Amino acid sequence: MTSTTPRRRGLRRLTTAAVAGAATLALAACGAATAITGADSSSDSTTSTSTSSSAVATTASDEGRTNDLLSSLDLTSLDTHYDEDDLTWDSSEEQTVTLSDSGSTSDSDGVTVDGSTVTITEGGVYRISGTLSDGQLVVAAPDDETVTIIMDGVSITNSSGTGIAVTSADEVTLSLEEGTENSVEDGSGYEVSDDSTPVAAIASASDLTIAGSGSLTVTGNTNDGISTKDGLVIASGTVTVNAADDAVRGKDYVSILDGTLDLTSGGDAIKSDNYEDEDRGWVLISAGDITIDSGDDGIDAEQAVEVLDGTLTIEQSVEGIEAQDIMLVGGTTSITASDDGVNATAANTADSTDDTTADSGETGGPGGGGGEEDDGSWLSVSGGTLTIDADFDGLDSNGSISLTGGTIDITSADNGGDSPVDANGDITFDGATLTANGTQITSADDLSSGGMGGGGGMGGGPQG
Asked: Does residue 187 have a pLDDT over 50?
């Protein structure tokens, strides 16, 4: 099933590089003739079962992009605000702030206290401890200065707004002191004046980094848990988030370098939604242990998602991972989804969030059944272990799919419109170990043999 989940204007592919040696299985979308060329994974030989009538490179209809099946993205090559040097400082640089309902105090000229609101007005390193049962920590430093906050046993609750609000700074680092437990919680039903920050328990208008070896528990009662208008890097720490909407959001990007994350969300668990800049709107998971229970998508990015390593467990989601381009390179990923397990789909060319106008004329189950044309999106599995339990498609791409490595086990629908592997464009199957609904896939022939279920095989029947 191809998705009609509303997405904003499509962007150009970030980076492309040819990858040689992959055999191609071309699946024409939704009831059109299927041409097959594939490699038998049980031997080194390549068996041609027919001649493909479609080129590997296809022009995408929505943006005029080239849908290059053998292309590759590398989000690690993109620049972010993060620098390891930001996590080191001399203890003599530290300025202390003690939070207290009876009156917060500080030894720094760069800190002001106004009732239950504590504001950092200058760049520097601040060690903060104590409790505000109904108050707020604000960072309002000059735009060219960095602020490091050492959270050393901090508890902040704000009944009428965000718990930590970064209204200005070049970038801010929250460093979780080893052995400490820290918590931040916002109120219910509030609004942010002048859109100065997102609506979130930890809300930032600047680049934000979370690091250290302590723990942080965040409760977002109105909207998001942790949200920044710029980039978000989680370098380490134990972070638990429970949010009414998105758990963790970086508008420009979310880069998870390591750490233990437990994310519960009413909306998306991890989200990046910049649709204006071609090198933004992405999620990168380099390592770590991440557990997700989401009311919408587990991971949703406007542009791209890449998983390099670590353990990613999406226990509940509508769609497990959704983006224009998705690369699963390594690690252990487990996805449970009420719609598609992994869905690659280009953003809509019109800025519409109305299901009646987006991809008009198409029907389908939850999340869509969308257009039949190759939209230039791309889904790649080249390594690691991937387990999917999906009510509709397992791997779904409105463009192309490349399965060139890793161990993949899919349980999904298989009824002609929905299947373990479904693409509008070309599918490469060469080198991956794939089990689909209990059947071991040993060659490209297995994908179109009609033995996968009632719909005539993967991608083999007309869709909704």
From this structure: yes
Contact between 218 and 184 (Cβ < 8 Å): yes
Give the CA angle between residues 425, 426, 432 to the nearest 5°: 135
pLDDT of residue 345: 95
Per-residue tokens: 9: 């204007």
What does pTM read for this prediction? 0.83
DSSP category for residue 348: P
Phi-psi region of 46 (alpha: psi -120 to 50; beta: other; left: phi over 0): beta
Interacting residues of 326 by C-beta distance below 8 A, sequence separation 6+: 304, 305, 306, 342, 344, 378, 379, 380
pLDDT in the model for residue 65: 35
Does pLDDT of 50 surpass 80?
Answer: no
Cβ-based neighbour number of residue 408 at 10 Å: 24
d(C-alpha 284, C-alpha 79), whole Å: 12
**Beta partners for 351?**
none
Residues constituting the chain: 464
Which of the four pLDDT bands, split at 50, 70 and 90, describes residue 442?
A: confident
Residue range 103-112: average pLDDT? 97
Q: Look at the block and give the residue holding tokens 């040993």.
A: 442
Contacts of 162 (CB under 8 A, 6+ apart): 136, 186, 192, 197, 199, 200, 201, 202, 203
DSSP string, 2-52: -B----------S------S---EE--STTS--B--EE-TTSS-EE--S--
- Scanning the structure block, which residue is given the tokens 């499509």? 10
DSSP secondary structure, 242-262, as one string? EESS-SEEESSEEEE-S-EEE
Residue 2 pLDDT greater than 80, yes or no? no
Name residue 422's amino acid. Answer: D
**What are the residues whose beta carbons fall under 8 Å from the beta carbon of 14, sequence distance 6 or more?**
73, 75, 78, 278, 279, 282, 303, 304, 325
Residue 139 has pLDDT above 50, yes or no: yes
The string of DSSP codes covering 70-86 is: T----GGGS--S--GGG
Instruction: Measure the CA–CA gap between 307 and 295, rounded to whole angstroms.
Output: 21
CA 305 from chain centre, in angstroms, equals 6
Instruction: State CA 87 to chain mean position distance.
Output: 25
* 325-328 vs 342-344, strand pairing mode: unpaired
Q: Give the separation between CA 440 and CA 18, rounded to whole angstroms.
A: 29
Dihedrals phi, psi of 72, to nearest 5 degrees: -145, 140
Report the C-alpha gap between 314 and 191 in whole angstroms. 31
End-to-end CA distance of the chain: 8
Helix (H) or strand (E) holding 95: strand 94-99
Angstrom distance (rounded) from CA 302 to CA 251: 9
Q: Rounded to the nearest 5°, which phi and psi values hold at 384? A: 80, -170
